[in-house]
Design a protein that fits this description.
Blueprint (H helix, E strand, L loop, with lengths): L6 H26 L3 H17 L1 H17 L4 H7 L3 H16 L7 E6 L5 E8 L2 E6 L4 H12 L3 E5 L5 H17 L7 E3 L6 H7 L7 E5 L2 H10 L12 E5 L5 H13 L8 E7 L4 H13 L3 E4 L1 H5 L7 E2 L2 H5 L6 E7 L1 H12 L4 E5 L3 H10 L4 E4 L19 E2 L7 E2 L6 E8 L7
Parallel strand pairs: 3-4, 3-6, 4-5, 7-8, 7-12, 8-11, 9-10, 9-11, 12-13
Antiparallel strand pairs: 1-2, 2-16, 14-15
Helix pairs in contact: 1-8, 2-5, 2-7, 3-7, 5-6, 10-11
């Protein structure tokens, strides 16, 4: 229990979480049976309302940013937290894209007829109540609502304290739109975030919550996955590698590397480690390092190894530099013995998110694709492309790095389960 909260306040917080979970469970059948046209109408109206109320959203977000700076949040976390008119428009665009997608609910995956005439089919159905635990990024609030609604689910959201005002404003707008279209406001709810205990209340609300999805730091994900009694889908951190092979077109490889690192360094698909083939000319190896430094990226690595190719101003790398996300303008750089060395390095340190290679050798590309174990493998492309919108899925709920049910960007199909429907005319089993 938080020292700042009394036993009575803590019990009140727990009661609020459970009450909202029960309310979500009560309205889940309504959402599950909504027609596609009704869901799309709400999504499009929500997109318009978000844009119309941009000033309210930015004002709430400004309070979070000011509090975050006072609390000493890093620049990367402030970047994740910040909203402006363009970002609000982007969030609204995600809802419009989700509205344009085919509805997964009711899709027939397979079917057949038994010898006795019973017709059977397996169809997609909503999961039910979808709990979401996430940090800092208020856009996730809207993404989760949009994908949950389109897939027939109810969204129960536990955002971070750092985004409390932004999230509250966004949920109020979404609830207003839902109510205006005849839906219960409980189709999306925001849970209290005063203490970390409310996360535990959510992830142990078995029987009320059907699935919980964490999105954030490695610590947050570990807390949810190891502490949940509710089924959890793991969305992993992004320790993404980019390997430059001796057969790469170097200018293109450097461009892809810089794009993955500097486009937006605070997101999970940002490149965090560059691996350089020892078979490249020493001058070309140095070009890679200096290109990163020239773009304002701080290079971490084996100082002696990189000094041997002429690299300067290298930060000594610790074990954490190879295994953790920076989410900042930092990168770990190592020189490896060809594609086999790159594959071995990745196998040791990967988080299973996205791994990339630059090479013009078809055999090398195939070896990398076959042997690297990750949710996404990029062949001659930036790691930045691991994104549900880039995949044509609309907004995503996160990047799943697990191997059960869903892997990679999680969109509409991944937010459904299935059931079997058998139709007979009186058959009995002997």
């Amino acid at each position: 229990m938080s020292d700042a909260m009394s036993a009575a306040d803590r019990e009140e917080e727990r009661a609020e979480v459970l009450a909202k979970a029960r309310a979500a469970k009560d309205v889940a059948p309504i959402v599950a049976t909504l027609a596609t046209s009704a869901k799309n109408e709400v999504l499009l109206a929500a997109a318009e309302e978000l844009v119309a109320r941009t000033e309210e959203i930015i004002a709430a977000n400004r309070r979070d940013i000011e509090a975050g700076r006072e609390a000493g949040l890093t620049d990367s976390l402030i970047d994740r937290l910040a909203l402006d008119a363009d970002r609000v428009e982007g969030i609204a665009g995600g809802l419009r894209q989700v509205a344009s997608l085919e509805d997964s609910v009711g899709e027939v995956l397979r079917g057949s007829v038994m010898p006795n005439g019973i017709r059977m089919k397996q169809v997609r159905v909503p999961l039910g109540v979808m709990g979401m635990v996430y940090e800092a990024r208020p856009n996730v609030t809207v993404d989760a609502f949009g994908l949950a609604l389109k897939s027939g689910n109810v969204a129960l959201l536990r955002g971070s304290k750092s985004a409390r005002h932004s999230n509250a404003q966004l949920v109020e707008i979404l609830q207003d739109v839902a109510a205006a279209h005849g839906l219960p406001r409980e189709v999306v709810q925001l849970l209290p975030c005063e203490t970390h205990d409310s996360v535990q209340d959510l992830i142990t609300a078995r029987g009320l919550v059907d699935v919980v999805i964490p999105r954030g730091s490695a610590r947050l994900i570990d807390v949810v996955v190891t502490g949940a009694t509710v089924p959890a889908i793991e969305t992993g951190t992004g320790n993404c590698h980019f390997y430059i092979d001796r057969d790469a077109e170097l200018d293109s490889a450097i461009e892809m590397l810089l794009n993955g690192k500097t486009r937006r360094c605070s997101v999970c698909n940002a490149t965090e480690t560059a691996l350089i083939d020892a078979g490249l000319d020493v001058a070309d190896q140095l070009r890679v390092v200096e290109a990163l430094q020239g773009a304002g990226v701080r290079v971490h690595g084996d100082v002696d190894k990189l000094a041997a190719i002429g690299a300067q101003n290298v930060e000594p790398a610790t074990e954490a530099d190879w295994s953790d996300e920076y989410l900042s303008m930092d990168i770990a750089v190592d020189i490896v013995d060809g594609v086999d060395g790159a594959i071995a390095h990745i196998a040791r340190y990967t988080s299973g998110h996205t791994e990339a290679i630059a090479s013009l050798n078809a055999y090398t590309l195939q070896e990398f694709a076959d042997q690297v174990d990750a949710a996404a493998v990029m062949l001659n492309a930036s790691t930045a492309f691991t994104d549900g919108e880039q995949y044509g899925m609309g907004a995503e709920i996160g990047i799943s790095t697990q191997k059960l049910h869903a892997r990679g960007p999680m969109a509409l199909p991944e937010l459904t389960s299935t059931k079997w429907i058998l139709e007979g005319n009186g058959q009995t089993r002997p």
